Amino acid sequence: MTKDKNIAPEFGVDSRYTSKKEYQSEATALMEARLQRMKGVSKDDIIRAKLLQLKLQMQEFIKQTTHQKKHYFSEFLQQYIDSIYSKRAVFAKDIGITPVQLSQIINNHRAPQDDFMLKLMIHSEMIYKNVCTFQKELWYQVYFHEKLCNTMATQQEWQSKLEKDVVVSEPILKYGKK
Amino acid sequence: MIIIEKATGNSHPIEIVPVEITDYKHLTKKRYFFHWKDEKKFEVYKLRIINSTDILGLISLERIPNEWRVHIRLLTVSVENKGTHKTFDNIAGNLITFAAKIAILEYAEMACVSLRPKTEIAKHYIEKYQMTATGITLSIEMPEILHLINRFDHD
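ok -> structure tokens follow
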């Protein structure tokens, strides 16, 4: 008992494996036990895990500073819908758009309009209420961050094309340091 | 994510960010209980209050993709945050939650965080974080991992 009293459980843990053999035997036992426990995980919990993963992926994306030309918004949207619905058309109906309009947004043939974004924010607020905290503006942040990333990733293409159309007619010294 | 100042009950927003190479000279065994320099080749993160440089906790992780698992190799709080007279509460909880978020981010419903505390303190981790014991390994998976994240993470 005296020993227990003196232990401060949270000063730290050293969990490093001392040998490959030790790791192997513990990893095998843990995996067997986990596979048994996984059988008891409900369908709802699987959906919750997928939605939490999506939120974390979106949060990671808006922190990224490197610029890659990729359709993140539509990929996240697809992931969101497919985590919850077995048919995308049902989601389209739930937010009052046609399946064709949804398909065009997902396949990047049409930019999402404000109305769509606002409905998506309301929908995800309803869904995430039972999962985890969710800042509904995250959808807009992803959308605009993607735009920014794509703009900067293609800078060489547009800059040389547009530069000739841009002039500064005011004397530059007016704004410079004295 | 926040930690609580025990004396005042005030909460402080924290961040958990990668340890920089220049940090290691300050990570002494006297203040952080372990030889953190030994972990240089692993993923090591530090916990600090936002806008402060003082490191209050550390975690070293190993991602094991073929097991959908994040293993906590080493975890510590700074010496003044140990025991009943600690300055801040929830440092270890936030560090474990950080590992849980990485596991969910990587492996979704298959996510697992594991650690191997000494037998004497295993009970504490089981009770406080709803971990499950398999031999000497403790782990947290779905759905408890989700409860843990919701308890400590409000971002």
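The first strand of chain B starts at residue 2 and ends at 5.
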